[in-house]
């Protein structure tokens, strides 16, 4: 047993020492796996970044009320009475003065130009909110400028929106529906709302010709457990044709929908590239074995076993694969970590997000590259042990 | 031609190696075909609409409706032949996963402005005369097994009816096809009779999402677009008018830069393949040096030897490309059926792109080994120096 281990380490080390002389062929495995891991890591970093932005949006103890079977805020149309009734529902938290902590909101989709483009605007959410929205969403912090004043055409804009769309810097004006809106503040929230513009609810209703029309009511629950109380009270009311969802669940569902396409694409690319890389690794290791035919035969002739030879070939291919994997992860990290992008979210408006190359992603990439390295080395390693020693010694 | 036999035989010198190289190439071109088709579907995918139609939407965004009084005004613009209007319905059939688009349209205006959709006169007449009716694309009808006369229930995500519910039922008045295969592949929407829809909906009456104008002369499009937008400037209902193609491309743009992403992936894939195949070719030439020297001794010219090595590279690359592309086409057919998105599998652009890629690749991998083969000195090569 001990001697087998000894043999393994002796041959493997000898092998690795000769690697520099086979640098060209060895590079194929390294570069091939660097490609696979870089592509996989970048795509997953993108999908994780989008999912993270959407799923950190919303809290377990807040609710979103929409009109029944609307799916998104954009589709939902509610009236004044719905708001008045819902705000009085049991389970909604109240502030010191006894006012329900809830904000009736109107979603209007507007078009803005992505930075660097001159035509073809993309959809951006403009959210008309009540003053209570700041109390309701403490994660929204004004970092520059000030809050918009009720009754004026003033808007605050999310940091992420500002970094992706042109014409919404602090102090500038944007024109929607024949009227100018002044950007008076920038806010950060670290979630999907950062891709939005916020304005005063009633100003939005009159400016966009939708008096007394609302998209949603967002409310703070007394505790996460009071959801059922609120829901059953509102559902029992025959006037209310609404659906009630926890805010966290509402955005998680959107995250699943939005990342589905990327996940399918990633899987398809990964499978095909993985096979391609395995074939390349096989090719490389076969040729590595064939250039060393004589050397291997000599080793066998002086008493080295088949297993050590096999292990040494496998070790070589897995080591090369690992180097490739590390290189690929590094490329993905340097190129894309923190890279921000915007895409269409489930609410049919843009969501800005950043790529996240996490340690877990890198580990997945490295494991994958080792697996490919293992399978790429397996058959050549096996064939190295099966060659007939006399023929091999006479060859070439 | 005699040389081809030699090139072919050389491919099978080391079967394992050739097969593995081919498989690497096949994977590369499989990805190439799939990704380019997706990218084409999102970028050049609107080439099928001519330039003869303009789409007018609210300037704020196309989700904001426009008042119907604008219809007459747009119609009166010189050069506009006919105007159709439509409203997004946002219906769900049984499950949100069964997604397909529905629009409410005026039947006669729709038939005039969109002659690309083909129906029988009887079907058109039923669509006009039955109030709660709809026509549906052949793709969607086939998917759900609908026939003319069926009653289809839809749950609108937006529009409640007079009684406050969102359930609507439409009779299938006709099943339309496209005028050619390209339009046929896109026959997956449903068009609902606007008159009935407008009467029944609880709010939003007398407005439509977008107006589509058919022009007498496509070259007038920019002028007419400017005229239409000028008429409504500074009114509460400002408009944005653009060609139908730009309107469709706008949707793809919303998804973000897919083309760039695809290019990154393909760059990584082809760079790897270049290395793999290049390395294989170099090795195969190295092993054959004595043989090549014999050929030269027999009187083959330097150029012929160079040509032979290049031809071998070309043969492997083109063979790999063909197999990969055929695989991609088959997979795309399957994906089109499964997703309902028209992915142009057999498009000639795609094949042209693939062949170009294969030829360029084969030169890139073949040129160094071929040059080496050309420069061989017979004496050195035979002596194994």
Could you walk me through the main structural features you see in this protein, from its secondary elements to its overall organization?
The complex is a heterodimer of chains A (396) and B (385). Chain A is an alpha+beta fold and 396 residues long. Chain A has twelve helices and twelve strands. In chain A, the strands form two sheets. In chain A, strands 1, 2, 3, 4, 5, 6, 7, 8, 9 and 10 form a ten-stranded mixed β-sheet that branches. Chain A is elongated. In chain B, the strands form two sheets. In chain B, strands 1, 3, 4, 5, 6, 7, 8, 9, 10, 12 and 13 form an eleven-stranded mixed β-sheet that branches. Chain B has a two-stranded antiparallel sheet with strand order 2-11. In chain B, helix 2 packs antiparallel against helix 11, helix 11 runs parallel beside helix 14 and helix 13 packs antiparallel against helix 14. Chain B is elongated and about 95 Å long. The mean pLDDT of chain B is 87. Classes of the chains: A alpha+beta (396), B alpha+beta (385). At the A-B interface, helix 2, strand 2, helix 8 and strand 11 of A face helix 2, helix 10 and helix 11 of B.
The succession of helices and strands of chain B, N to C, reads HHEEHEEEHEHEHEEHEHEEHEHHHHHH
Mean pLDDT of chain B: 87
Which chains have the largest interface? A-B, 58 and 58 residues
Principal-axes geometry of chain A comes out as elongated
C-alpha Rg of chain B (nearest Å): 29 Å
- Strand proportion of chain B, as a percent range, falls in 15-25%
Low-confidence stretches of chain A: none
* SSE ordering of chain A: HHEHEEHEEHEEEHEHEHHHEEHH
State which percent range the strand residues of chain A make up: 15-25%
Query: Residue ranges of chain B: pLDDT <50 for 5 or more in a row?
Result: none
Oligomer: heterodimer
Number of strands of chain A: 12
- Gross morphology of chain B is elongated
Average predicted local confidence, pLDDT of chain A: 89
Q: What share of the residues of chain B lie within helices?
A: 55-70%
Distance linking N and C termini of chain A: 34 Å
Taking the sheet with the most strands of chain A, its summary is:
10 strands, mixed
């Amino acid at each position: 047993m001990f001697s087998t281990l000894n043999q393994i380490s002796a041959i493997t080390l000898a092998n690795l020492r000769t690697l520099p002389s086979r640098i060209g062929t060895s590079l194929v495995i390294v570069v091939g796996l660097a490609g696979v891991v870089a592509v996989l890591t970048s795509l997953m970093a993108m999908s994780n970044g989008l999912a993270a932005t959407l799923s950190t949006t919303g809290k377990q103890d807040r609710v979103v009320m929409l009109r029944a079977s609307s799916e998104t805020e954009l589709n939902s149309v509610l009236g004044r009475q719905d708001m008045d009734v819902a705000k009085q529902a049991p389970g909604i938290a109240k502030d010191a003065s006894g006012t329900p902590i809830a904000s009736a909101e109107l979603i209007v989709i507007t078009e803005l130009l992505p930075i660097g483009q001159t035509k073809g605007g993309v959809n951006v959410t403009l959210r008309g909110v009540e003053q209570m929205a700041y109390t309701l969403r403490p994660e929204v912090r004004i970092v520059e400028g000030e809050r918009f004043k009720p009754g004026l055409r003033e808007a605050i804009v999310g940091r992420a929106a500002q970094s992706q769309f042109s014409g919404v810097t602090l102090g500038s004006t944007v024109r929607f529906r024949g009227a100018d809106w002044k950007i008076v503040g920038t806010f950060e929230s670290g979630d999907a709302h950062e891709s939005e513009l916020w304005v005063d609810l009633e100003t939005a209703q009159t400016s966009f010709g939708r008096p007394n029309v609302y998209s949603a009511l967002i409310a703070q629950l007394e505790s996460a457990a009071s959801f059922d109380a609120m829901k059953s009270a509102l559902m029992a009311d025959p006037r209310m044709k609404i659906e009630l969802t926890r805010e966290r669940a509402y955005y998680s569902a959107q995250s699943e929908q939005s990342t589905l396409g990327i996940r399918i694409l990633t899987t398809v690319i990964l499978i095909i590239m993985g096979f391609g890389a395995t074939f390349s690794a096989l090719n490389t290791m076969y040729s590595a074995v064939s250039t060393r035919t004589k050397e291997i035969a000599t080793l066998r002739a002086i008493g080295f076993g088949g297993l050590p030879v096999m292990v040494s070939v496998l070790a070589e291919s897995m080591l090369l694969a690992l180097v490739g994997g590390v290189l690929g992860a590094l490329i993905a990290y340097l190129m894309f970590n923190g890279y921000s992008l915007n895409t269409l979210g489930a609410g049919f408006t843009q969501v800005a997000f950043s790529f996240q190359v996490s340690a877990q992603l890198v580990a997945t990439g490295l494991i994958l590259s080792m697996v490919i390295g293992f399978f790429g080395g397996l058959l050549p390693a096996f064939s190295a042990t099966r060659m007939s020693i006399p023929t091999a010694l006479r060859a070439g | 031609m005699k040389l081809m036999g030699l090139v072919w035989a050389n491919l099978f010198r080391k079967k394992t190696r050739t097969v593995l190289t081919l498989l690497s190439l096949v994977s590369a071109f499989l990805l190439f075909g799939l990704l380019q088709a997706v990218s084409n579907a999102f970028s050049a995918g609107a080439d099928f609409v001519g330039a003869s139609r303009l789409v007018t939407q609210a300037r704020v965004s196309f989700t904001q409706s426009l008042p119907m009084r604008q219809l007459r005004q747009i119609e009166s613009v010189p050069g506009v032949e006919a105007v159709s209007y439509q409203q997004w319905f946002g219906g769900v059939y049984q499950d949100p996963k069964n997604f397909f688009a529905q629009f409410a349209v005026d039947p006669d205006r729709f038939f005039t402005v969109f002659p690309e959709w083909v129906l029988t006169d009887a079907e058109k007449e039923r669509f006009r005369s039955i109030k709660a009716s709809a026509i549906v694309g052949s793709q969607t009808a086939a998917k759900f097994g609908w026939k003319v006369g069926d009653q289809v229930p839809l749950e609108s995500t937006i529009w409640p009816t007079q009684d406050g519910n969102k359930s609507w039922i439409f009779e299938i008045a006709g099943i339309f096809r496209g005028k050619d295969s390209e339009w046929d592949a896109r026959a997956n929407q449903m068009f609902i009779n606007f008159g009935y829809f407008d009467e029944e909906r609880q709010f939003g009456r007398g407005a439509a999402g977008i107006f589509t104008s058919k022009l007498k002369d496509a070259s007038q499009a920019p002028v007419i677009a400017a005229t239409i937008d000028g008429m409504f400037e500074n009114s509460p209902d400002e408009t944005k008018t653009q060609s139908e193609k730009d309107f469709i491309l706008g949707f793809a743009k919303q998804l973000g830069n897919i083309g760039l992403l695809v290019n990154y992936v393909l760059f990584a894939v082809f760079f790897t393949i270049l290395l793999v195949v290049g390395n294989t070719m170099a090795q195969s030439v190295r092993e054959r040096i004595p043989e090549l020297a014999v050929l030269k001794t027999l009187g083959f010219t330097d150029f012929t030897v160079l040509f032979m090595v290049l031809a071998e590279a070309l043969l492997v690359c083109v063979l790999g490309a063909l197999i990969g592309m055929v695989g991609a086409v088959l997979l795309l057919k399957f994906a089109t059926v499964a997703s309902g998105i028209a992915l142009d599998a057999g498009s000639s652009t795609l094949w042209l792109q693939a062949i170009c890629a294969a030829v360029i690749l084969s030169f890139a991998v073949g040129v160094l080994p071929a040059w080496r083969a050309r420069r061989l000195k017979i004496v050195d090569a035979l002596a194994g120096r």
